[in-house]
Amino acid sequence: MLRAWPLSLLLLSCTPVQRVQLMKQTVRLEDGRFVGPVEIKVPRHADHQGHDFEVRVTLVAQCDPLFTLAWPDGEQRTLGVDDLKWQDLLRARAGVSEARPPQGAQRPPPPPRGQVAQPQTQQQPMQPPQQPDVAPWPGTPQPQPQPQAQPQPPAPVSAGVGVDAQLTIPAPTVGHWQATQTESWSGQFAFEAERTRRCSGSRTFTAKYLNAFDDTNTVAIWADLPQELAGAELTVELTELIPPPKPAEKAVVVEARLETPKPAKQRPPQPKQRVENPKPAQDANAKWNPGAWAWREGVGEWIWVPGYWLQPATGPALRNDNPGNPPLAGCRWVNGHWVWVGSVGGWEWVNGHWDPPPPLVEEKRDQPDPTAPWISGQWLTWNGSFRWNPGRWGRPQPRAERPTPCANGNAWVSGEWLTVAARWTWSPGFCAGTERPPPPKIETPGARPHPDAVWLAGFWRWDVTARIHFWIDGHWELPPGEGYVWVEEKIGNDLIIRGHWELRVVPR
Known about the structure:
Elements: E1 2-7, E2 18-29, E3 32-34, E4 38-41, E5 52-62, E6 66-70, E7 76-80, H1 84-94, H2 188-198, E8 202-211, E9 218-222, E10 227-242, E11 252-257, E12 287-289, E13 292-296, E14 301-305, E15 308-310, E16 332-334, E17 337-341, E18 346-350, E19 353-355, E20 374-375, E21 378-382, E22 385-389, E23 392-393, E24 412-413, E25 416-420, E26 423-427, E27 430-431, E28 454-456, E29 459-463, E30 468-472, E31 475-477, E32 484-491, E33 496-503
Antiparallel strand pairs: 1-11, 2-10, 3-10, 4-9, 5-8, 5-10, 6-7, 6-9, 12-15, 13-14, 16-19, 17-18, 20-23, 21-22, 24-27, 25-26, 28-31, 29-30, 32-33
Helix pairs in contact: 1-2
């Protein structure tokens, strides 16, 4: 069956990738023990012309949890605090029952039916009979007390002298029952103290991923060990990256042929198991987990997952960190910890570090455009200390323009927001080649404000109203996130130079 229709294709502009947010969903996770999984449905690429998706997951939680996060294409990564000491305490808690009585404790048998249990008291020895408290007549023989089982016999009493023969028994010592705490499982006190400390504040964890294909159209999160959780919210944001359309010069007629879809490709048999010869583990208690073949739906082939050494139940003793004085007021010290390296079967020490102070409170003023997003300020590491990177307004959304037909085959340059004098300013679109700009200025960048900062060179931009070229100064700029690089865009014969941030390396 054939079907034909005309497609009127116009001259299209050289616009950057358009970002369209498709969804934003927040899920509240229950307090207490959490294992999961929690799955959130996300749109599919097939429903959006196969465009790339940028998935952003934000977790706000107390108690320093550690989760496994699975993206729609099956890729996984960890999200949270990978602290060996805390995970060992959670593992110890997961291996025992909460209702287990203290080891060695025995309860007394219940009293017979119809009787009331009486408290046990210590039996006192019998007291000898008391002598009369009177003075005998002189010369009257005195009755001698019965000998007692003592190391020395009592001294003889002279006749004719008055004697107080009363035997005084000291009163029993007064006491009371005192409650003592015992652990119902080994490490319970350490766990409760660590839980109180870690659940006293909330932390934010963020993961971002460029997803080019999907298999499950879900974002899933779960825990390998029951995690302690409080005040946790999971937010999933998905943005569609729409590339600029390909330019065309005239209307064409396209014939579309409806064909029967091809049957799904059958999975080939699994290859033979590989023979692995791992080197001896650095830790004698490590056990080898052999490699295996795994099927990847997106790639459509078997992929070999190498073997690795499993982490032993116990690790080395923690080292004593000496943090010294904090670099800034409000900094919090995070102790060092051991990390298991499965490839070598040994432990690697991660030094402790200072966390930055709490974020500063900033006032949002002078918004350049209602569509401009606010980028919160943050502390950046700098020369062993921290430096505050102030909050700022992000690039607003492009304004709607109707391209003007350009003469002599010149290309239309779309309008865009430019940073002029540290403020976003809208520069309307124009036809390239109208006037040739002056030679580029020689700029002196100066000292780099941060190791990750990138120098964005200045360039000439045509002012449609004044009909002159004005210079856009270069400036230092931090990438919008991990894995971004700056890509220059040259239009025409190097007449206009600009650029954009592009995600090249997906953080794992």
